[in-house]
Write a structure and sequence with these properties.
Layout lengths: L4 H5 L4 E6 L2 H10 L4 E4 L4 E5 L4 H21 L2 E4 L4 E2 L5 E2 L3 E4 L1 H4 L17 E5 L6 H13 L5 E6 L4 E6 L4 E4 L5 E4 L3 E7 L5
Parallel strand pairs: 8-9
Antiparallel strand pairs: 1-3, 2-3, 4-7, 5-6, 7-8, 9-10, 10-11, 12-13
Length: 198
């Protein structure tokens, strides 16, 4: 049993010792619909905690603007409830993402009832107070960009900064969060006012 809050914090997130296949993981998620979980490339399952009130609000700001963009341009804007199968064998749930209509056209309606094997064009991750920044930086580089995401933003609103990760492996720091940034050539015409996060 845990004797203090500090010892509890040292085990979050939790990783299972057992490895699950993609099919087993999907079945596991169906019978545990309220559990936040991702599958590691080696089949271990990462159990995560819900995010803070503020962090959820920041995620919603990104999702709202992405949804408007998707309505106008086609494609899909997705929340952290989605599970995406990546080429490295993992199943991940970005805080917000966009998948182009061109990519989605390769899938049937039946395919879309499962964890879709698709790499988003664009991903947003929002650092919550219980997140480790180094883990998130690694996720941006070694998961999202390494698997083919073309543009990714990591927002650390508490510390008034955001990093832009690009497919060429360049990383740009934006601080303070007092300007409008855009989707570059990945999301032509998409802009996001970082002042919405204050």
């Amino acid at each position: 049993m845990f004797s203090s809050l500090e010892s509890l914090e040292s085990v979050a997130p939790l990783y299972t010792a057992h490895q699950l296949s993609l099919e087993q993981f999907e079945a596991f998620c169906r019978v545990n619909p309220n559990l936040l979980a991702e599958r590691e490339p080696d089949g271990r399952i990462k159990i995560m905690c819900p995010v803070s009130f503020d962090s959820s609000g920041y995620e919603a700001e990104f999702i709202a603007d992405l949804k408007l963009y998707a309505r106008a341009q086609g494609g899909a804007a997705l929340s952290s409830a989605v599970g995406l199968r990546l080429p490295d064998g993992s199943v991940r749930s970005p805080d917000a993402c966009y998948v182009s209509a061109a990519k989605l056209s390769a899938f049937t309606a039946r395919d879309r009832q499962h964890f879709l094997a698709v790499v988003p064009d664009f991903v947003v991750e929002v650092k919550s107070p219980n997140d480790d920044l180094q883990d998130l930086e690694s996720k941006m580089r070694d998961t999202w960009i390494a698997n083919g995401v073309r543009l990714a933003w990591l927002a650390d609103v508490e510390n008034d900064r955001l990093w832009i990760y690009r497919a060429d492996h360049s990383v740009e720091l934006v601080s303070p969060l007092d300007r409008t940034i855009d989707g570059e050539d990945v999301l032509p015409g998409f802009t996001f006012d970082l002042n919405l996060l204050s």
